[in-house]
């Protein structure tokens, strides 16, 4: 490449996408690229999409890179990197004009009908598209169409490079074929003029302790980098440059952020039954059973895989009763099976945490796709009425700290706390500054130990379910002298003895529900909702959960065009902060609710609790996360089309 006379480039602004058959190393390649960028001081945000089968179907991973924090994925890729034909067929039309495609040269002659894993609907749509363009049905024909639109093509002879690598390492070709992922990554970094040394650092991290694997992949990266530098013009419009920074950062996924939050919160028992996308969190915790505490001592975390979800919540409840900070993680179908246990926790005032990763529904639905469809369900799960606290995180920072809040609230108010996330957050990976843990406190509420009992009651008896003004009773652990109590799934008196006395029933029901009023009064406003934008904005965006990042970036684009907006992100969903939300929405000329579900569940809840209705719904329910562009376009449509603006806009981007 001629670095001295290359065209003016967009520096450190890149959307990079890699795809391939599931099980072929797409995740590893994306991790190497993302970590290489992170080692150079750049901010990274990644999003992984994959089918629920184990092997073979198409998966892809988008990575956005910038010298500023990145909040969400984008609609188009600046650089598409592939080592199979399906990736190009599926994503070529989503490459930005003046972007590029890195692909295996030998696949150019692949006909559309020879890619067996393509969905039938997509195959037919692509066939019609190519026929309309007046070209044939091969990969080369599609590439010629996108090239006419300005996309640059970078055919790479992967087989030749692998053969050379095998000869240099004196190994059979079959032993080095996995290095094709590294070839693809290095080819793209060469186009971006981002030094191969950053790939080496990433490889050492990803394959830590495997010196031979690292060495062979480093050599593969050098071969691909050199080939691109010698073969193609220096004309790619994006460039990555290392940025010096003294800021300590970590690279982690959403499930890891939640797991680390649980460790910080003092969780000592985690239960689970494997279910997508929650399992990764428990697997991460299993790999960290021993934890070094701030005082230098070793702490232990017990992770138990149970025979089913019913056992998972029951075991967590038992651990919480015994005094452990206990949690279970699941997804929608698993939570459905936990509802009976949830009711037991409610009536016995057990401080248990349930981390719920929402996914495509109903039934098994789409196990590895995202959704925000469980809100109404978790608010009312179980027959009858009973208190629970529900909070929802919008990004990886909130996910981490919200786990601490969940445990503190569970013990302070002696209720189950349901922490709502979704698959999009679970599959998000990002670089971020180290979490600040110095101000974090563990709050165990009215938990009494033996030394606390003298003077704790007027008659010397600690009734487990004692009536109190705030609805919260003093709590002791089983075996504590003077703290004897009974547990039952039936209604009970202050001691826990079964009763059907109508007066006691009324008082006990009111005592339990009083907890929500106490929580609503005590939880600070800033933990109930976030507000972005200026108070003078006439249009207000209303949303919750993982839509946050795309909304914030879309707002920045719209405000630059003269559309001032306010964004109300609801975080505490039960007890519902109706008064605080009403204050933010009153006077708005236009309210646009944005959700990853069909019906706009939060918007309906806001109307139920405040009487304020959203003017427009922007909803998405195809299982893919929201992109910046489609949120931007949807909001702008609602703001500019006046009376013609649709009541409901369905967002559909995603492959």
Helix content class = 25-40%
Strand residues, percent: 15-25%
Chain oligomer state: single chain
Count of helix runs? 21
Per DSSP E runs of 2 or more residues, the count of β-strands stands at: 25
- Give the averaged pLDDT, no decimals: 94
CATH topology of the largest domain: Pyruvate-ferredoxin Oxidoreductase, domain 3
Task: Estimate nothing, just give the exact number of structural domains.
Answer: 4
Low-pLDDT stretches: 1-6
For the record, what CATH class of the largest domain applies? Alpha Beta
Structural class: alpha/beta
* CATH architecture annotation of the largest domain: 3-Layer(aba) Sandwich
Calculate the terminal CA-CA distance, rounded to whole Å.
Answer: 34 Å
Rg from C-alpha positions? 27 Å
Walk me through this protein's architecture.
By secondary structure, the chain is α/β, with parallel strands linked by helices. The protein folds into four domains: about 230 residues, Pyruvate-ferredoxin oxidoreductase, PFOR, domain III (Pyruvate-ferredoxin Oxidoreductase, domain 3), CATH 3.40.920.10; about 180 residues, Thiamin diphosphate (ThDP)-binding fold, Pyr/PP domains (Rossmann fold); about 80 residues, no CATH class; about 130 residues, Rossmann fold, CATH 3.40.50. The protein is built from 21 helices and 25 strands. The chain has an eight-stranded mixed beta sheet with strand order 7-6-5-2-4-3-18-9, with helices on both faces. Strands 13-10-14-15-17-16-22 form a seven-stranded mixed beta sheet, sandwiched between helices. It has a six-stranded mixed beta sheet with strand order 19-21-20-23-24-25, with helices on both faces. β11 and β12 form a beta hairpin. α10 packs parallel to α15, α12 packs parallel to α13 and α18 crosses α21. The longest helix is centred in the middle third of the chain and has 21 residues. The relative contact order is 0.09.
